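User: Sequence in, structure out. Go.
Assistant: Echoing your sequence, followed by the structure tokens.
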Amino acid sequence: MSYFPSTSNSTGRWSLMEIRNEIMGQNWIGTVFSGTNAIFGYGEIGSVLDTITRFDNTGTYVGSEENAGTARNGLAAASYGGDKAIFGFGYNGSTVDTITRFDNTGTYVGSEESAGTARNGLAAASYGGDKAIFGFGYTTAAVNTITRFDSTGTYVGSEESAGTARTGHAAASYGGDKAIFGFGYNGSSIVDTITRFDNTGTYVGSEESAGTARRYLAAASYGGDKAIFGFGYNGSSNVNTITRFDNTGTYVGSEESAGTARRNLAAATYGGDKAIFGFGYTTENVNTITRFDNTGTYVGSQENAGTERRELAAASYG
């Protein structure tokens, strides 16, 4: 087996992204690149939790533990440094700006305060290949605050005015190094707004009409460079709507019936190119896990993966 593509592009040269995509297309994940695992953290069951639940690179539940920093709900999480996870912000009786980090083994390494605007109901994604961006959320009203962390998980600043202020949305990486935020609630209505950031974490624009407007959904990357948004609440009922975006961040379609309709769940990439959605709320808290393969196709659900809960966050690591 060659470690280089057997064909050439029109220029006769290969970019790093083209080589990466060629490798991923040949299922070399785990050979050249590390497999990724998924970590789900925090949430609530009526009281806030500090529970951490991990899944390996096959999407299999491998265990849970308590006492990983500040218990809270309504937070967000993303990968950083290429293989670590950062959880940020949330609510524990008041909005907080707590940042909690996990290393590339999924082990808790510490928490700190004072990383920008305290808020909850936000979302986060990786960008630039190794950095994390947290966006939007709720203080006393919906906000459009963007907070960034560098490749070491260090807070590097916040800014306002990146598109429509909203809460209850979701975010994922796309294109290998960019971030897309989608859907949510703007303070008066549920929206289908999509907001994109480039590989420097710079706001590049928003648009409407990307499928079913909803809130309390989740999102993850899949296929190495695409984004999938799933589930949520449309204002009258929980839904199992799945919405996909290609590697340019362009909406490519939606469908129903991908497992249990629910809201207030979380999602992460696993296995390098697949997506796992977990937990949430139906008419009660659930521990349902739903998986999608590297084409974004639903491959099944299961119950009983740790503590039933809602309003948690998730990221990949390893």
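User: And one key feature?
Assistant: Helices lie at 16-25.
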